[in-house]
Amino acid sequence: MADWTACLNFGISVTKQASEIVLSAFQQQKEVKLKSSAADLVTETDQRVEKILISNIRDRYPQHRFIGEESVAAGERLELTDSPTWIIDPIDGTVNFVHRFPFVAISIAFTVNKQTEFGIVYSCVEDKLFYAQRGRGAFLNGEPLHASGQEDVSKCVVVTEIGAERDDLALSTMTSNIFRLLQLPVHGVRALGTAAVDMCQVATGGADAYYHIGMHCWDIAASALIVQEAGGVVTDTDGSEFDMMSRRVIAASSSAVASRIAQVIQAFPCRHDDEDPYKCVCGAAGVNRV
């Protein structure tokens, strides 16, 4: 089995460098553009950070491939192959970034043969570096991470997001899911505004579960591995095997909690990330970010 530690270390290095751009722009006024909805925002900093990350990585690894949120938004085809591939979200939590709400992350996953080999999530304002390498554990600023192991859903804190979807079906589904969870009951439902950092809370044990429908592979590919390497469980929202392209995920402290959440939440139709973008899917939204 190939050792991708050198790639991981380089990925951490370029992530830290790119975070300086995010932090320098954090308190400044931003020029904001809309994408698929009034809650789906992009700034010049998103685009600049992605270009710098891809350029720096390509200089070191010219044969590697890339899937970047802003590149896909600009019309580049999203295709995950067996080749070494970097999946990049330059700013996860763009709405937070625009409003200076301090949960903003750079998320990078690295896949080979369509399997995630390592994941990096850097919460820039908090200066928290989450990372994991397949089979080697998960860490926060160098310290090992462990999911809570909680098996009783009634004792869980659950994290989720409303996201950028604003059509009636998506909104009614997401709000009714929260209602059903609170009726189970659970201890509480929380949202930080960034899927990558949300999921990492499960890896820390600070939250016991996370679920979402409508996010994209760049939002969750890195943090899914971080949760798994911390001893957590990651599945589809229907309880089946997790597919980063499906735009549906449950991350949980245990199989019991994941299964119980899967029993009560519902999904609205979403086009898979790697499907034909011109294929009509009722209720699906375009590229979105939390």
Give a brief rundown of this model.
The chain has 290 residues and is an alpha+beta fold.
Structure description:
The protein has 290 residues and is α+β, with helices and mostly antiparallel strands. It folds into two domains: 5-144, Fructose-1,6-Bisphosphatase, Chain A, domain 1 (2-Layer Sandwich), CATH 3.30.540.10; 153-264, D-Maltodextrin-Binding Protein, domain 2 (3-Layer(aba) Sandwich), CATH 3.40.190. Helices cover 34% and strands 22% of the residues. The chain has helices spanning 5-26, 44-60, 69-73, 94-99, 168-183, 195-204, 217-229, 255-264; strands at residues 32-34, 41-43, 65-68, 85-92, 105-112, 115-123, 128-133, 138-140, 143-144, 157-159, 188-190, 209-213, 233-235, 248-252. The strands form three sheets. It has a seven-stranded mixed beta sheet, with helices on both faces. Strands 11-10-12-14-13 form a five-stranded mixed beta sheet, with helices on both faces. The chain has a two-stranded antiparallel sheet with strand order 1-2. The model is unreliable at 281-290 (pLDDT under 50).
